[in-house]
Amino acid sequence: PKSAEIWTKNKTILFENTTSSDTHKLDDGTFRIFFMKDSKIVYADSKDATTFDTPQSTGISESQGKFISNPAVLKNAANNWIMIYEEQPMTKPGQKPGAPGPESQRNLMSAISADGKSFTKVGVAIDSAGDDNYFASVPDLIKTPDGKIRMYYVCGGEAICSAISDDGKIWVKEAGVRMGDKAVDPDVLYQDGQWVMYFATLTGDNNRFYKATSADGLQWLKGQEFLKPDSEQGAIVDPDTIEISLGKWRMFFGEMAEGEGQMGGPAQINLYWADFEGEIF
Known about the structure:
Elements: E1 8-15, E2 22-25, E3 31-37, E4 40-46, E5 56-61, E6 66-77, E7 80-89, E8 107-113, E9 119-126, E10 136-143, E11 149-155, E12 160-165, E13 172-173, E14 183-191, E15 194-201, E16 209-214, E17 221-227, E18 235-245, E19 248-256, E20 269-277
Antiparallel strand pairs: 1-20, 2-3, 3-4, 4-5, 6-7, 7-8, 8-9, 10-11, 11-12, 12-13, 14-15, 15-16, 16-17, 18-19, 19-20
């Protein structure tokens, strides 16, 4: 196996009090990042993936009593953009996050757009009451070599599953688990028959990012850890990787310095990035 990738963190906060971004390089070279802010899914554009414009609403906002997060976006054709995002009931004041169940059901919802800026809600993409123990979270979308769309997502709370679609509307869960062992937050890239997945682990404070590789996108081989929080009490989540120029990669991610870790405590989570130069496939 290749030696571990050395990713270098930038200490500057890109956006405060958010995580789980999804970044794309558009045909004209613009970088567009999607994330959740102020109860809405927003986007921000950049020429260099370093300085971003003021975030603008995509038109996807919270319904009454619901909390939305974790957008994943895919440009499927010239005027056809798909967004999958998470929706769950608002937690009540003082309510502690418990085990997944009907009261806290997390579903994955879909929206469509003609321009990648203004989206319209479509409906439920993954109803987690079926095979996912009321917990479907943190989606990632990728085109497969045969022209379908695969969604990787956190299933049941502590594993990564996948679903397949012809059009981004009807999703069929694929059998088995893509990555178990408390793997979450999948970020999948594909090039020339090789698949790469960056993901986080649910190991509480001082968790890690890992890399996995695959020849078919279904069977994955877990590789080495390559990034950890700066603080012993910290946690890192939600890798989001883009090639900013040939052989230069930028990974956006969320990090919290201290607290109960894994979103349980009062600690604020902010969006940062790390860079790697070299071959990832």
